[in-house]
């Protein structure tokens, strides 16, 4: 379904994110026929490109990042005709009139701030000052949304001085992933799971976002952020929210975000002995962290595992174990809902302990597996064995779904549609920082040094101990 006519201005249009993610996503949607006739993209950045030179840069990026679609020369050329460029410096008042001249009054007008957060205020102010904001204006901001609670509050206040909350789209690209949206479909579209989705039946929940990549090319940013700020505060927190939240009354932006916010606010502070920090050392998959960032004394974590508690009626007593790290043995994002054992085994002690596990694979091999207990075949009495009920989305949904659309395709189009459901609200981001800040402050106060783990391994051994102490073990990579 095509969206309304739009002008999309990408500040930082020559940058990495715009070239690698935003423009290819827009191009794919264009090829899918989702663009109306009256729509254009205007890149804006400091580089003194002519529109034609910018188009060449874009074409190059599309060939690398949307190769299948770019092979269609007609589509590529028609798309490029919809791309324009204005050299513009966020810190100066010149050239804004040139940008204004390219915008149409009656279209959706979206400004994508694909720049560092230090420029958000300047851009917001200049959009207002040069009279570029219309009632159909939206602004899109990327993470990191601040460095801590204080800076996130300041950013929210800066944006709120110029735009209403309904105009601000804060991106957490995990929410744009098909499989992440599917968490809501699985939970709230089936009668099967929801009655069991609470501490009475669920022993604990594991959320793993393991990456095999390192931090190459982003050393400076990453060494200031670390895994806690880069992944836990946002992506893992969002996954936790979707798994733990109450059913919203409807799938509408505030109903969904209200429920997510309640989860974050119900989180207990994390006890220091329930957190493991790690930093990768040299190993089978490459050099060590400190060599990579060129800082031999860096104590930034590239891995974090922790045990969280959502203190509310539904989840009291059911821990959530979250872990994420770089340079691990494989790329694998999985949520495991670990159900309790049956209350009584009629088959006696020999049958062993068996509990159902619902695994939701977010990436790769997107799908769902339910581990169920059955009788071991054979005449030798009643022995039990666990088998997987396995579903791969690609197989179940057919070949056109082999390759799920990139998160940005969904998110950028939702901006144009004016649907904020998959974007973070200001209070949500602040609540997530309010939970994260004391953890980081504790590390700093104690002079905590992350535990080393080999690059290409399963992470620091202490993460296993975190589970073992509770009589549990990680599923998947371990
Ligand atoms: C980004 C983080 O937000 O998400 C990166 O800054 C991380 O460090 C990336 O690699 C992971 O995203 P994906 O989509 O590859 O799982």
TrEMBL record:
Keywords: Carbohydrate metabolism, Glucose metabolism, NADP, Oxidoreductase
Chain intervals for the UniProt region annotation (Disordered): 446-478
Alphabetical list of InterPro entries matching this protein: G6P_DH (IPR001282), G6P_DH_AS (IPR019796), G6P_DH_C (IPR022675), G6P_DH_NAD-bd (IPR022674), NAD(P)-bd_dom_sf (IPR036291)
Pathway involvement of the protein, from the record: Carbohydrate degradation; pentose phosphate pathway; D-ribulose 5-phosphate from D-glucose 6-phosphate (oxidative stage): step 1/3
Keyword Kinase: no
GO biological process assignments: glucose metabolic process; pentose-phosphate shunt, oxidative branch
An annotated GO cellular component: cytosol
Protein origin, superkingdom: Bacteria
Record field: catalytic activity: D-glucose 6-phosphate + NADP(+) = 6-phospho-D-glucono-1,5-lactone + NADPH + H(+)
Annotated Gene3D superfamilies: Dihydrodipicolinate Reductase, domain 2 (3.30.360.10), NAD(P)-binding Rossmann-like Domain (3.40.50.720)
Domain Glucose-6-phosphate dehydrogenase C-terminal, chain residue ranges per copy: 184-475
Boundaries of every Glucose-6-phosphate dehydrogenase NAD-binding domain copy: 9-182
EC number: 1.1.1.49
Active site as annotated: 235 (proton acceptor)
Binding-site positions, substrate: 173, 177, 211, 230, 326
Top EC class for this record: oxidoreductase
Binding site for NADP(+): 46, 143
Summary of the function given for this chain in its UniProt record: Catalyzes the oxidation of glucose 6-phosphate to 6-phosphogluconolactone.
Protein family per UniProt: Belongs to the glucose-6-phosphate dehydrogenase family.
Protein name (record): Glucose-6-phosphate 1-dehydrogenase
């Amino acid at each position: 379904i095509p969206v309304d006519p739009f002008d999309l201005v990408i500040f930082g249009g020559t940058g990495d994110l715009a070239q690698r993610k935003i423009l290819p996503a827009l191009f794919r949607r264009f090829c899918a026929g989702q663009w109306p006739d009256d729509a254009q993209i205007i890149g804006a950045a400091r580089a003194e490109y002519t529109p034609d030179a910018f188009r060449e840069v874009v074409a190059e990026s599309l060939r690398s990042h949307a190769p299948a679609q770019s092979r269609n020369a007609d589509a590529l050329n028609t798309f490029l005709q919809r791309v324009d460029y204005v050299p513009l410096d966020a810190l100066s008042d010149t050239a804004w009139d040139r940008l204004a001249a390219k915008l149409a009054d009656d279209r959706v007008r979206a400004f994508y701030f694909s720049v560092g957060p230090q420029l958000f205020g300047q851009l917001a102010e200049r959009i207002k000052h040069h009279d570029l904001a219309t009632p159909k204006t939206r602004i899109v901001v990327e993470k990191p949304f601040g460095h801590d609670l204080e800076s996130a509050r300041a950013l929210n206040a800066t944006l709120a001085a110029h735009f209403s909350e309904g105009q601000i789209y804060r991106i957490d690209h995990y929410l744009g992933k098909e499989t992440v949206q599917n968490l809501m479909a699985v939970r709230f579209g089936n009668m099967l799971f929801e009655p069991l989705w609470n501490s009475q039946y669920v022993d604990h929940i594991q959320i793993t976002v393991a990456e095999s990549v390192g931090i190459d090319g982003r050393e400076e940013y990453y060494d200031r952020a670390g895994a806690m700020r880069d992944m836990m505060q946002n992506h893992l927190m969002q996954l936790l929210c979707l798994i733990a939240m109450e059913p919203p009354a409807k799938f509408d932006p505030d109903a969904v975000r209200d429920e997510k916010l309640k989860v974050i606010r119900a989180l207990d502070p994390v006890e220091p002995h329930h957190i493991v920090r790690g930093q990768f050392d040299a190993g089978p998959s490459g050099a060590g962290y400190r060599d990579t960032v060129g800082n031999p004394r860096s104590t930034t974590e590239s891995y974090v595992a922790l045990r969280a508690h959502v203190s509310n009626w539904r989840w009291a007593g059911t821990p959530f174990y979250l872990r994420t790290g770089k340079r691990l043995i494989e790329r694998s994002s999985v949520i495991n809902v670990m159900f309790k054992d049956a209350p009584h085994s009629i088959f006696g002690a020999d049958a062993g302990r068996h509990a159902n596990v619902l695994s939701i694979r977010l990436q790769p091999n997107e799908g769902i597996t339910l581990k169920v207990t059955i009788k071991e075949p054979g005449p030798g009495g009643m022995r039990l064995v666990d088998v997987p009920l396995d579903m791969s989305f690609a197989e179940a949904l057919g070949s056109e779904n082999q390759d799920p659309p990139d998160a940005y395709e969904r998110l950028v189009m939702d901006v144009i549609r004016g649907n904020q459901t998959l974007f973070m609200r200001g209070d949500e981001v602040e609540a997530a920082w309010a939970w994260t800040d004391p953890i980081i402050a504790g590390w700093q106060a104690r002079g905590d040094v992350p535990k080393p783990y080999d690059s290409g391994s399963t992470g620091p051994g202490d993460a296993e101990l975190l589970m073992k102490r509770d009589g549990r073990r990680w599923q998947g990579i371990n």
